[in-house]
Amino acid sequence: MIAMGSDHAGYEMKLVLAEHLKERGYDVKDFGTYSTESCDYPDFAKAVAKAVADGEAERGILVCGTGIGMSIAANKVKGIRAAVLSDEFSAQATREHNDANILCLGARVIDNDKAIKLLDIFMDTPFSEGVNHIRRISKLEQ
Ligand code: RB5
Predict the structure, then answer these.
(1) Regions of the chain short of the pLDDT cut 50
(2) pTM
(3) What gap in Å lies between CA 30 and CA 21, rounded to an integer?
(4) Mutate to test the pocket of ligand 1, among 66, 76, 86 (most ligand atoms within 8 A of CB)
């Protein structure tokens, strides 16, 4: 299952990305918010991050205005490696090097086409399993 969340600013982009993931055959769970009414991004970042950290979800997708607030909040949960992305190179690198498990996007920064491209790279790129990267990630966990 892929856990998804947004605040009001990311709500519409989240729906587009959820539809895209469903078309690709993924099981998606939306942890809110469920409208464009103003709300607080840490609430949804926490719910998605906990689902990923607990193993309920294989990965998470979070969308707010910039992606930054979501990434700050999600990275407070142990075991989470959330990356806020706006370019393809970083999307590939954060999977290969950081084994990022949550993708954060800014709906006021990138358009839906770019978001779908980044989402596909994030979903399709495996962790490199390189010993240097494994060592660095284990230092993050400590
Ligand atoms: C909401 O106005 C905005 O602050 C939020 O979506 C996000 O960009 C925070 O990082």
Answers:
(1) none
(2) 0.98
(3) 12
(4) 66
* Residues 38/8, Cβ–Cβ less than 8 Å: yes
Share of residues in the chain with pLDDT > 70 (%): 100
Q: Which of 14, 40, 41 to mutate to test the pocket of ligand 1 (most atoms within 8 A of CB)?
A: 41
pLDDT tens column, 93-124: 999 999 999 999 999 999 999 999 999 999 99
Q: Which amino acid is present at 60? A: G
- CA 36 / ligand 1 centre spacing (Å): 12
123, 85 contact by CB (below 8 A): no
